[in-house]
Automatic annotation (TrEMBL):
Signal peptide: none
Lineage: Bacteria, Pseudomonadati, Pseudomonadota, Gammaproteobacteria, Oceanospirillales
Domain Smf/DprA SLOG residues, every copy: 94-306
Residue ranges constituting the DprA winged helix domain according to the UniProt record: 355-414
Source species: Litoribrevibacter euphylliae
Protein name in the entry: DNA-processing protein DprA
A Pfam family assignment: DNA_processg_A
InterPro entries: DprA, DprA_WH, DrpA_SLOG, WH-like_DNA-bd_sf
Family indicated by similarity: Belongs to the DprA/Smf family.
């Protein structure tokens, strides 16, 4: 195998290895990283017998039972494939890379590894708008997606979408037309397959055109085929890369509404284009508008949301996010890192042992604004932000610690107090 250090930092290589282990989610890796600050520390843990005490999926435990004694050998074929792909022009970013998208890093389940093709600087665009909608779009929907994307890119807003048929493809095409006319920003496609594949196959040429001025990215390893459950996971990255999400044509059960829900949970803005009340492809947009999404009929409706005052607010959020990234220290510094056996109490890693003191006495609801915001009914991340006034960068750190200490648990759509 080629020397990986010629293509990756040691940190990126370690995160890449961790991401390739079946059944270990990025969320689990983020939790482990709060106790084991360096990715190589997590690899040491997994190579020892202590992985048996971790709350891992069965598939991960089965894989580790067979391969933990020599993880490098087990992952060698995938690593060789990735190195060859990078030699041919691809790139790999880990979530601690300086050129990892700062907006995406804010979300609670950011991918630890991003595979990319094209212009990686596109991922650092200061203004990005996601555009999603039906694969079976009407002619009206296609025309509007193309027009909105074209105008947004001419106004300096990068368009992020999923390279699917229908609205996604029309949005990318509109963005690329603006680029051909001299626009300074382009478009980013987030896909749900390995980047050595193209789905749908009819978009091979579109993929190539996007790579010339923009970027195509995926969290999935090379060779990963499209599966239905990968697309909702992909949608959180589309919204995570953007300040807002524009929905153009969506049925009541459309996957595009997953993107809208992700946007709300990530404290992003949601915009929706109305359509004919007799058009089932517009029902999802109308439902979003009823729930509080901003109705838009022109690009100006979006731009006015990001006028000078709002842009200043975005800048302050970005500066605060950078301050948090610098100021938040890991629980255990590199010089203090303990070997896994020293972190075991009653056969479970220290970070995952239930508190000996009842959570109520450690975090009483009246004294903790986060727990008060969650309440007995539970709450989404967006609701907690509204109720506490905290930024997502600040809140995500505290939610993670409350979850690790067993005070709260994450559930579909938000968080709930954990019953004991």
């Amino acid at each position: 195998m080629h020397d990986p250090s010629l293509f990756f930092s040691s940190r990126t290589l370690h995160w890449l290895k961790l991401s390739l282990i079946p059944g270990i989610s990025c969320r689990t890796l983020m939790k482990l990283q709060t106790v084991y600050p360096q990715p190589e520390d997590i690899l040491i843990l997994l190579a020892s017998g202590e992985w048996r005490n971790l709350p891992l999926q069965k598939s991960a435990k089965h894989w580790l039972a067979e391969h933990s004694q020599d993880i490098d050998a087990a992952l060698k074929p995938k690593l060789e494939q990735t190195l060859e792909w990078v030699q041919q022009g691809g790139f790999v970013l880990d979530w601690q890379s300086p050129d990892y998208p700062p907006l995406l890093k804010e979300i609670y389940d950011a991918p630890v590894i991003i595979y990319g093709l094209g212009q990686r600087q596109s991922l650092m665009a200061s203004c990005s708008m996601a555009m999603v909608g039906s694969r079976k779009a009407t002619r009206y929907g296609v025309e509007q997606a193309h027009s909105f994307a074209y105008q947004l890119v001419h106004q300096g807003w990068q368009v992020v979408s999923g390279m699917a048929l229908g609205i996604d493809g029309a949005g990318h095409q509109g963005a690329l037309q603006a680029v051909s006319e001299g626009a300074a920003v382009s478009t980013v496609a987030v896909v749900a397959t390995g980047l050595d594949l193209t789905y749908p196959s009819s978009h091979k040429q579109l993929k190539q055109r996007i790579m010339e001025t923009g970027c195509v990215i995926s969290e999935y390893p090379l060779g990963t085929q499209a599966k239905a459950n990968y697309f909702p996971r992909r949608n959180r990255i589309i919204s995570g890369l953007s300040q807002g999400v524009l929905v153009i044509e969506a049925t009541e059960k459309s996957g595009s509404l997953v993107s809208a829900r992700c946007a709300l949970e990530q404290n992003r803005d949601v915009f929706a284009l109305p359509g004919l009340i007799t058009n089932p492809q517009a029902e999802g947009c109308h439902s979003l508008i009823k729930q509080g999404a901003k109705l838009v009929t022109s690009v100006e409706d979006i731009l006015e949301e990001y006028a000078t005052g709002h842009q200043a607010q975005l800048k302050r959020k970005t500066e605060h996010r950078r301050e948090v990234d610098v100021s938040v220290q890991p629980i255990i510094s590199r010089s203090q890192t303990l070997v896994p056996s020293e972190l075991v109490v009653d056969s479970a890693p220290l970070s995952l042992v239930e508190p000996t003191v009842q959570p109520e006495s450690q975090h009483s609801v009246p004294d903790d604004p986060i727990l008060s915001a969650i309440g007995s009914q539970g709450a989404s991340a967006d609701e907690i932000i509204v109720r506490t006034g905290m930024s997502w960068a600040e809140l995500s750190q505290k939610l993670l610690m409350l979850e690790l200490t067993g005070v709260i648990e994450s559930k579909q759509g938000g968080y709930a107090l954990k019953s004991h």
